[in-house]
Amino acid sequence: MELFLETGFTSLNKKGEELCGDKVEQFSDGETTTLVLADGLGSGVKANILATLTSKILCTMVSNGVGIEECIETVVQTLPVCKVRQVAYATFSVVHINREGKGWLFEFDNPEAIYIHNGKCGNFDRKEYNILGKKVYATRLSLSPDDYIVLMSDGVIHAGIGMLLNFGWLRDDVMEHLDKNFFEGMTARGVACLLAGACNDLYVGEPGDDTTVAALRIRKVSKVRLMVGPPVERDRDDFYISRFLEGEGKKIVCGGTSSQIVARHLGEKVSASFEFPDKDVPPIGYIKGIDLTTEGVLTLRKLLELSEAYLSSSDLTPKRSKKRDGASLLANMLFEEATHVTFFVGQSINAAHQGLPIDITMKLKLVESLTDNLRKMGKVVEVNYD
Amino acid sequence: MVKVTVCIGSSCHLKGSRQVVEELQYLINKNDLGESVDLGGTFCMGRCGENGVSVTVDGDYYAVKPESVLDFFNDVIVKKVK
């Protein structure tokens, strides 16, 4: 079974701050993923610099296979000393893991990471080490599919202190909240957003501290193939469509003409639905044998907007949409369910569309921006131009 | 039964096919024609160049603008039903 590592994070800035004093840094070479969450001392610019240095140094060194002791030594020697407090300090959590789910977790002074296994929260079996006089906790990881590691800064467990709650919520409360609201198949980004959203509520929308949640999930590979637009060579439609259809994974067709030629190839009919769950997005259609059929450019434009919101680390709207319009359905399939996305972009020009805001250049630009955003989400994207 | 099909492709969407659909649904209900008119949608009919949203009534083509749906309904659909 082929496995895939997925990461996602959400950050809330302390009220009134432009910059976040927490920083998430990640690197993946396709085989091994390194995820670092660092929390700098204080807030604002100073904290941001400390967190940025710490996370970047750790991520680069750890991902290149340097031992943790040497990494920490480098961090300690590099961080500038705070004039007010006379210390150089940033807390951190580091995950270094391969696609089989084997690896390490190192923690220094951040709240203890939460391990979600079989949909239930638990603790890691961590061991204490003394490295350069610092207490570092190390855990040898061995994850199974659909396990999650949830890293957080202390803004999470301090949420609501002196506001809604006297002492904030405890780690147990955080786990209870996750247990209650977690659902099967949730993405890493979804989990991070769920927890950060709860913190934001406890802070009544005005965080008293920088709050960051970063999650890593190991999951099965799930492929999606998406065709948008008819190919240029009209008489070779069948060749291109069979190539699109024969690959493994769910199939999506975007565009009126595309759906008609795919239906013709399959010997089926396209039926268009007549509902407008969103007034900006044309209705979807149905072809037997195709998982999702939508209109083209207008739906993709909306999808691009949704992808920006999905990527924004401060966006707290739930990541899995309950809306039923074409763009939201596409968003769920591409952002939430897929790990690999293959595009088949036909470049045939619809003469009647030229000059309108739905012409071919618009379509190609949309596909380009969309693939960029999918890559930023960590998806493996392949684009074929036909 | 009169078969009315409205194009909901990109180009017609921009020209207001949603308004046309909603207004037709409203008029059909109001005139109690639900039993005699079968309203449906389709993707691009390939006549994006026409000045209006593409609509077919029993296979005959019409380009309908959102502001003239009422006239189209009275002149074409109601007559056809009778």
SSE blueprint:
The complex is a heterodimer of chains A (386) and B (82).
Chain A (H helix, E strand, L loop, with lengths): L2 E10 L9 E7 L3 E9 L3 H20 L4 H11 L11 E9 L3 E7 L5 E4 L2 E3 L4 E5 L2 E9 L4 E6 L1 H4 L13 H11 L6 H15 L8 E10 L2 E6 L8 H10 L3 E5 L1 H11 L4 E2 L12 E2 L5 E3 L2 H15 L14 H12 L2 E6 L14 H17 L3 E6 L1
Helix pairs in contact in A: 1-2, 4-5, 8-9, 8-10
Chain B lengths: L1 E6 L2 H6 L1 H14 L6 E6 L10 E5 L2 E5 L4 H13 L1
Parallel strand pairs in B: 1-2
Antiparallel strand pairs in B: 1-3, 3-4
Largest sheet of chain B: 4 strands, mixed
Strand order of the largest sheet of chain B: 2-1-3-4
Shape of chain B: globular
Q: Class by helix and strand content of chain A?
A: alpha+beta
Care to give the gist of this entry?
The complex is a heterodimer of chains A (386) and B (82). Chain A has ten helices and 18 strands.
Detailed description of the structure:
The complex is a heterodimer of chains A (386) and B (82). Chain A has helices at residues 44-63, 68-78, 154-157, 171-181, 188-202, 237-246, 256-266, 297-311, 326-337, 360-376, and strands spanning 3-12, 22-28, 32-40, 90-98, 102-108, 114-117, 120-122, 127-131, 134-142, 147-152, 211-220, 223-228, 250-254, 271-272, 285-286, 292-294, 340-345, 380-385. The model of chain A has no long low-confidence stretch (mean pLDDT 91). In chain A, the strands form four sheets. A six-stranded antiparallel β-sheet of chain A has the order 2-3-4-5-9-8. Chain A has ten helices and 18 strands. Chain A is of the alpha+beta class and 386 residues long. Chain A is elongated. With 82 residues, chain B is α+β, with helices and mostly antiparallel strands. Chain B is 40% helix and 27% strand. Chain B has three helices and four strands. A four-stranded mixed β-sheet of chain B has the order 2-1-3-4. Chain B is globular, with a radius of gyration of 12 Å. Chain B starts with a strand and ends with a helix. The model of chain B has no long low-confidence stretch (mean pLDDT 91). Chain A binds chain B through residues 255-257, 259-260, 270, 272-274, 276, 279, 282-283, 285, 295-298, 350-353, 356-358, and chain B through 8-11, 13-14, 17-18, 21-22, 39-44, 46-49.
